[in-house]
């Protein structure tokens, strides 16, 4: 009975798209024969997600080689680094999004896009089950499944509340474009409420108390944006309550921006103190109600509560339920985050790749590889390591694992170089190999996973598309010119992350930047660097023009305070 409706979503190819209705008997199976039998069937690549990772995969993929099908609940790509600017109207939401169809129409070959959410991955049968979230009755409950030859998971992560009571119900988040728009409305509502007649001064103060939980780059940038918004725009529009506004930034660690160089952390803390932003470090939020936020001081163990008008929760990310379920299926149920190898292949699952925030490269393997590098270097024989051998081994390790170098540079260089010093601090020519391995295992246990950033996600997408583009070439010529150092005989070099530095806008036309080569820059000139980098990184000329004109509009007319 549903056949005529279901045809809307059926593609005619083997391993095709099948629409579901409420009962399994309504499934329309794809025909078993290709329409065009003269051409061999192209392998189907299903891509889940159109964020940083998914989009950069699609941008570089030679789609003429594959049957490419993309599934995402959002039909646009959002430039997330500018989301904090959307919360205060510095930049409009429309200016930072690019429709997916604009992106894919420019690609070589055809790419199909389905606006739907993947609700289940079925690794055994190599298919994904999706549900359209468009509110219509075209296809029963809107579910369909897609079979794949290769699956690229790029579904990102979701907000992490750490199961803190009341957070989901009473906090705003800053993850999606819609979240930023809600905050924009929420901030203006707090001001409009605070000036209503009949309120006590205490009630007005409470309405104008903005609390941000999380002192990472997003929380800090939002605090800075909010502060600028008050100082430059709202102070003139709501003069009667201008002295009652307060911003509190809560951070569980000892410093804000603690993933940056400590000069940047302390510059940011000093600037916020001068600006009157209350920075509470060493505090863990234990619950949030509609009126109060309760936290525990780590040093004293004491719990206290403060009233709030609006809370923004920005404390890192967690795994999406669909990925969790998939991890259970493939024996990764005990892990916190989906693991891949260095070629971004999901461990324990054929033909599935995971890129961006939804996965991480498994670190345990790194230590095994480091041991094999030692063996290959053949330095164990004497039981000691000369400085030259040390350098060679380290070079080898760092080529494969740039994050080890990052870690050594940032924090624990001493752990390894100290091994070369005697008790008086003088360098000695060689070191005990066991001691060296011990120090490296410490490095391994401390080496952080790659950060969950757009930079990592975009580089992984580009890397993977290049592997896909070269797949046929490598199949025809398996000995290939680029075998990786004889170990593993893999056709492709493993993924290597290149860190191009990171920014932290701090408000008042000032920013801080940590650039490659341990170069730190802070102040007004860095803000101009920030403007130029973010303008150049836009995905299209359309968004570039929109963003730059929003910045110009803000300089000339100020921000819009309607909250729309
Ligand atoms: P996302 O970009 O989150 O994309 C996930 C995609 O998957 C989306 O299209 C989503 O709709 C889709 N999806 C979700 N669920 C499903 C499903 N079930 N089925 C199919 N599709 C699904 N990083 C930086 O490097 N620099 C910055 O300045 C920076 N600033 C940031 C500011 C903010 C406010 C935020 C929130 C993040 C910021 N980041 C920044 C981090 C960066 O945005 C993320 O690391 C990056 O978006 C990760 O890319 P991704 O493709 O893995 O995930």
UniProtKB/TrEMBL annotation:
Catalytic activity annotation: a ubiquinone + NADH + H(+) = a ubiquinol + NAD(+); a quinone + NADH + H(+) = a quinol + NAD(+)
Localization in the cell: Mitochondrion inner membrane; Peroxisome
Gene3D superfamilies found in the cross-reference section: 3.50.50.100
Spans through the membrane: none
Membrane topology: Peripheral membrane protein
Pfam family, one: NDH2_C
Signal peptide interval: none
Keyword Ligase: no
UniProt enzyme class: oxidoreductase
InterPro entries: EF-hand-dom_pair, EF_Hand_1_Ca_BS, EF_hand_dom, FAD/NAD-bd_sf, FAD/NAD-binding_dom, NDH-2, NDH2-like_C
Assigned keywords, A-Z: Calcium, FAD, Flavoprotein, Membrane, Metal-binding, Mitochondrion, Mitochondrion inner membrane, NAD, NADP, Oxidoreductase, Peroxisome, Transit peptide
Chain ranges of the EF-hand domain: 365-400
Cofactors (names): FAD
Keyword Ligase: no
UniProt similarity note: Belongs to the NADH dehydrogenase family.
PANTHER family: EXTERNAL ALTERNATIVE NAD(P)H-UBIQUINONE OXIDOREDUCTASE B1, MITOCHONDRIAL, NADH DEHYDROGENASE
Name of protein: NADH:ubiquinone reductase (non-electrogenic)
Species in which this protein is naturally found: Ziziphus jujuba (Chinese jujube)
